[in-house]
Amino acid sequence: MEKLIRQYWWKALGVLILLYVFVVGMLVPLKPGITLVAPSSAKTGQELILEIEGYNTNFDKAEDTLRMWLKMDNERSLAAKSIDVIGPRNARVAFNIPDYLPSSQRVQDFALVIDNPIDGASVRPNAVLITQDSIDPDQGIQQWVNENMTGLHEKQGITFPFRNILGETIRNTYFHVSLWLAMMIIFIAAMVYSIKYLRRLDNRYDYWASALTSVGLLLGGLGLLTGAIWAEYTWGKFWSWDIKQFTTLIALLIYMAYFVLRSAFPDEAQRARISAVYNIFAFIALIPLIYVLPRLTDSLHPGNGGNPALGGEDLDNTMRMVFYPAVIGWTLVSSWIASLLYRTSQIEEYLWDKWDEDDNYEK
Amino acid sequence: MKATNWILTAFLVFFTLTTGAAQTGSTDFMRSMGKMYVVVAVIVAVFIGLVLFLVVLDRRLTKIENQINDHG
Question: Is the pLDDT of residue B25 over 60?
Fold first, then answer.
C-alpha cells in the first residue's frame, strides 16, 4: 500500500475511465421517444385526432413508412387512419374510435406506439384515456377492427433508453447513482481499515480509516446534492422527504458524528480505538438505512417498494457499459483523494512527534 | 478561508438561481433539450464539491507549512 500510493498508473486509470464516462455518457444519443400526445382523453364513437411530439425522431424522413397504433393490450391494437407529418418531431394522427370498446371498464387507457425503419418503435404508455358512454364488451369485440403490430423495427446504432419524465437526465445514472456505489466501496474500505486497526493497533490504519471516511462523506454529500437537483426536475421538488432521501441523510449524519467523536479525544490511542469501533457500527447502520428500509415502503426512487433495482429499461446493456466504468472511475479517483489525506496526516504526525521530542530535549 | 467563502457564495448563487428559476416558472431553460441542462447542473455540482474538498486540503497543508516556518 505504501508503494501503491506513490504510483501514478491507477490514478491515471481512474481519470481516463472518468473521461471515457464523461464523453460516452454525454455523447451517445437517446432512443427516439414520444414526449407529448394531445389531447390525452377522448370519447368513443368519434374520430380522434392526436397531436404528437417526438424526441430524436425523424418523422419527415420516414413519412411513407411511418405507422402508428393505439394499443389496448397485448392482443388488441387499433391502427391509425391517417398520419400527417408536420416536421421531424411533429405529426398529426387520426384514429376511428368505435362506439363500444372490447372492455368492461368505463375508462380504458391506451398506449401509443409509433414505428418506422429509421427511429425504430417507440411507446408512450397511458397516452390516451378513452371513456365509453355505455359498456358492452360483446358489441365492442364485434366492432373492433384489430390490427396486430407486426414487423416492428429496432433503432440501429448505440443509444440510451428514452424514459418519459427522465428524458436526457437518464445520464445522471453515471453522475449520481455511481457516486453512491463508489461511496459504498469507500466506506467498506474504511471499515476494513478500522477492523485492521483494532487487530494490530497500528496508527496508520486509523489514518486510512479516517481519510477514507471523509472521502466517503464527500461522495455521499455529492450524492444527496446531485439527487436533489435531479429530483427538482423529475419529481418536482428538491427535497420531498422520500424514504431513501431521509434514510441516506441519517446515514450521512451518523458518519459525520465519526469526525465529531474523533475531535473529542485528545489522546491518540484512545481516539483511534473508539473511532474504529464507531466506524464499524456506522457501517452496520448504513446497510439497513440504504438497502433495507427504503425497500419496505413506497419510494420515489426506482428499486424500492418492491421494484427491481437497476434493471429493465432503467439500466440497459448500453448503459451498463458506461455505468460500471463510472463506479470504478469514481472509486479510483476517490481513493486518490483519500491517499492524499492519508499522506497529509502522516506528515502531520511525523512533524508533531518530532517537535514534541525537540521540546522535551530543550527542557 | 477567503477561498472557501468565495466558493460557498458561488455555490449558493448557483443554487438560488436554479431554485429561483423553478419558482418563477422560467424553467424552460432547464427543461429544454430533453432536460439536458439538469445533467449539466449535476456535473457542475460534483465539480464544485471536488474543488471544495481541494480547498480544505489546501488549507490543511498551508497550516503545516506555517508550523514548519514557526519551528524554524
Answer: no
